[in-house]
Amino acid sequence: MTLAEPMADGELRLEPLAEEHRIALKEACAQDPEIWPIYAVSYDPEHFDASFAALLSRPDAQAFAILCGGELVGMSAYLGIDAARGVLEIGNTYYVPRLRGTGFNRRVKDLMLGRAFACGFRRVEFRVDARNARSQAAMAKLGAVREGVIRADRITWTGHVRDTVLFSILAEEWDGGRGT
Predict the structure, then answer these.
(1) How far is CA 180 from CA 33, 37, 137, 146, 175, in A?
(2) Which of 46, 50, 106, 113 has the most crowded Cβ, counting Cβ within 10 A?
(3) Are 117 and 174 in contact, with CB atoms under 8 Å apart?
(4) What is the spatial distance between Cα 47 and Cα 85, in angstroms, rounded to a whole number?
(5) How far apart are CA 105 and CA 94, in angstroms?
C-alpha cells in the first residue's frame, strides 16, 4: 500500500488528483468565492489554473480529487511528506458548500489518516489559519491536539501575514475512525 493509491468508503472516493480533474474541480471551487481569502492559496476562478499546476508539481505532496456518488466535490492532500521522519500534513482541503457540517469531512479525514498510519507515518499535522474557526472546530472533532500558534507563519495569496494554528494526531492517539 502507498499514500497515492485511491481510497473509498461507500459512495465516497479519493483518487489521485490529475489533469483529468481540472475542469470539474475548477467548477467545484468556484461555488464559494468568498472562502478563498482565508486560504493560503486561492483556487478561485482567477487563480485556479496556477494553483492547480503548482499543487500537481509539488514533489512533497500527494493530492486527491474527492468524489461522492461519482461527482467531484472537493480536494485534499498530503503535504510536506517526510517519510524519514514519519511525518506529513493533511491540508489543501476544500469541499463544496453543501457538504460542510454534514460529517463528510470526518469520513474523508478518516480515510486519509488511516492510510497515513497504515503506511508507517507516526504523526499527521494540520495547519489552520487562525482566522478559520470552522476548520479549527473540525480539527477538534477529529481528536487532533492543538499544539499552539506559529506566529506570522506565512504570507497568503492576498498578502495577509497569517498566524497558523498547529494541530496533530499521533498514530497511537488515533481512534481508527470511530469518532471522538
Answers:
(1) 32, 30, 13, 15, 8
(2) 113
(3) yes
(4) 33
(5) 9
The answer to whether the CB of 36 falls within 8 A of the CB of 85 is no
Alpha helix positions (H), the chain:
22-29, 48-57, 104-118, 133-142
Structure pTM?
A: 0.94
Domain residue ranges in the chain: 7-170
Contacts of 137 (CB under 8 A, 6+ apart): none
> What's the CA angle centered on 39, arms 106 and 82, to 5 degrees?
65
CB contact at 8 A, 149 and 131: no
Tens-digit pLDDT profile for residues 39-66:
999 999 999 999 999 999 999 999 999 9
CATH of the domain spanning 7-170, picked from 3.40.50.300, 3.30.300.20, 3.40.630.30, 2.40.50.140: 3.40.630.30
| Angle in degrees, CA 49, 110, 54, rounded to 5 | 15
d(CA 24, CA 171): 34
